[in-house]
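Retry 2 of 3 after timeout on previous attempt. Resubmitting structure tokens to design endpoint.
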């Protein structure tokens, strides 16, 4: 089993920054890609970003490209999401998840999920 725990969420003003972390424990996630999704109230959970095991490849949703950066430190079993130039529409619960296949953006490609961390951006 794998446990994923997100942290770093909070309340920030528009234009501000936050860095989310996702700590993995349990069995190894070697060769897994890691991704971030988000879910706003009343909306479907949507893909945000993904990073390959070696961190050499990334994939971003168009809505966050150029503002968010995904990275990982495999020695710490931690994946990060640096969020800059935040907008009120970025308000959501952010989830990290593991993908044994690659950098896909579909929910069904991801097997383990964290419980989420709330990000609120005020205008």
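Retry 2 succeeded. Sequence:
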């Amino acid at each position: 089993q794998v446990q994923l725990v997100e942290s770093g969420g909070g309340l920030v003003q528009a234009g501000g920054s936050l860095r989310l972390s996702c700590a993995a424990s349990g069995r190894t996630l070697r060769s897994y890609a890691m991704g971030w999704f988000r879910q706003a109230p009343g909306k479907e959970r949507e893909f945000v970003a993904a990073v390959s095991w070696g961190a050499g490849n990334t994939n971003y949703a168009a809505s966050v490209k150029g503002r968010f950066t995904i990275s990982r430190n495999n020695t710490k079993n931690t994946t990060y999401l640096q969020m800059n130039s935040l907008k009120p529409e970025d308000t959501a619960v952010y989830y990290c998840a593991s993908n044994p296949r690659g950098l896909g953006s579909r929910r069904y490609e991801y097997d383990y999920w964290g419980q989420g961390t709330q990000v609120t951006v005020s205008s």
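Attempt log closed. The chain has a mean pLDDT of 96.
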